[in-house]
Amino acid sequence: MTKYKSLLFFGAPGCGKGTQGQVLGGLPGCFHLAMGDVFRSMDKESELGKIFTEYSSSGRLVPDELVIKIWAEHMEKLAKAGKFKPEKDILILDGLPRTVEQAEVLKKYITVIKVIHINCDDKNALVKRIQNRAKDSGRADDAKEDVIRNRLAVYEKETYPVLEKYSKDSIANIDGLKTPMQVLKQILDVVVPLI
Asked: 124, 65 in Cβ contact below 8 A?
């Protein structure tokens, strides 16, 4: 099996991972995959869709084995459809891995080129960003402050420690409090020399 060359996008909810991942994913030879989008596109009436909704509506993380299964099947479909070319494209992975266990399992599927950590320590700014996004996107899970704060707490407890699985040299820390254009420039300064 060909391992996917990957850039991992890390950061708390609302830090701009999706925005920046979409921009990079639009470049030739890059493919952006946001696990949140994969989950939201699932059939909510399917067995997996019902399980996902049960977790996401309360801000909890979906179980690791289920996440990896959904991701691997989705990637296989994308490759078969010719949308993702594993031998040529760089996978920009946003929202995965979210736990240490997921990071371990992903090692057999991906080769990490760089971890892009979009850092945003101002929780109030993140809450505002997510609430503003809810107005534009219609995402109900983005509207309630208690759910948002729970997602931020889950990120700090479960996802942030995943960064420790990667060497300091492989992590690029990006200031996520800057404007989207300034954040993009920081990311491009890191990524362009690698590809």
From this structure: no
| Residue with tokens 């407890």, as numbered in its chain | 157
- State what percent of residues in the chain have pLDDT above 70: 93
Q: Could you identify the residue written with the tokens 């084995």? A: 65
Q: Yes or no: say if 83 and 23 are a contact pair by the CB < 8 Å rule.
A: no
Q: What is the residue extent of each domain of the chain?
A: 4-194
The 10 Å CB-count burial string (b at 16+, else e) for 143-182 is: eeeebbeebbebbeebbeebbebbeeeebbebebbeeeee
- Overall average pLDDT of the 151-155 stretch: 85
The Cβ-side half-sphere exposure at 120, using a 13 Å CA radius, reads 25
Distance CA 150, CA 97 (A): 19
Domain 4-194, what architecture? Answer: 3-Layer(aba) Sandwich (3.40)
Question: Which residues fall within 8 angstroms of residue 12, CB to CB, at 6 or more apart?
Answer: 120, 123, 126, 152, 155, 156, 160
Among 119, 105, 23, smallest CA distance to 67 is for 105
pLDDT averaged over every residue in the chain: 88
